[in-house]
Amino acid sequence: QVQLEESGGGLVQPGGSLRLSCAASGSIFSITGMGWYRQAPGKQRDMVAAITSGGSTNYAESVKGRFTISRDDNKKTVYLQMNSLEPEDTAVYYCNAYILSKSPWRDYWGQGTQVTVSS
């Protein structure tokens, strides 16, 4: 059974930084795309950043220059370094990965981690 477990969320002041981590576990054969999404209260879930197995990255316009996504394939982990945080970044952040396991290729989601930016 494949699971994604996020960590690193919390409360931070505007201008501060946080680093999110998401580790995949279970009977995993291969992982291709990995990414981070976020959902604020009353809003839809939107892509924040994504990274391919080759290391190509893509960012939402609102976080370009402030957030950096990276991955460690040996640890089956994806990271999101968030700098210069703004109150508008407050949301639940979800990890996503496209994984081949004993099941066919499919998307998996973490349970979410709360990020609150407030003074």
Structure in a nutshell:
This protein has 119 residues and is mainly β.
Contiguous low-pLDDT stretches (5 residues minimum) are: none
Note the run of SSEs as H and E. Answer: EEEEEEEEEEE
Structural class: mainly beta
Largest sheet features: 7 strands, mixed
- Measured on Cα atoms, how large is the radius of gyration? 14 Å
Helix content: under 10%
Label the overall shape: globular
The first-to-last residue Cα distance is 40 Å
Count of DSSP strands: 11
**How much strand?**
over 45%
Description:
30% of the residues are buried. Strand 9 (91-101) and strand 10 form a beta hairpin. The strands form two sheets. Strands 2, 4, 5, 6, 9, 10 and 11 form a seven-stranded mixed β-sheet that branches. A four-stranded antiparallel β-sheet has the order 1-3-8-7, with no helix packed on it. With 119 residues, the chain is mainly β. The chain has no helices and eleven strands. The mean pLDDT is 97. The protein is 0% helix and 58% strand.
Notable traits:
single chain; 119 residues; mainly beta; seven-stranded mixed sheet; 58% strand
Topology (SSEs and partners):
Layout: E1 3-7, E2 10-12, E3 18-25, E4 28-39, E5 46-51, E6 57-59, E7 67-72, E8 77-82, E9 91-101, E10 106-109, E11 113-117
Parallel strand pairs: 2-11
Antiparallel strand pairs: 1-3, 3-8, 4-5, 4-9, 5-6, 7-8, 9-10, 9-11
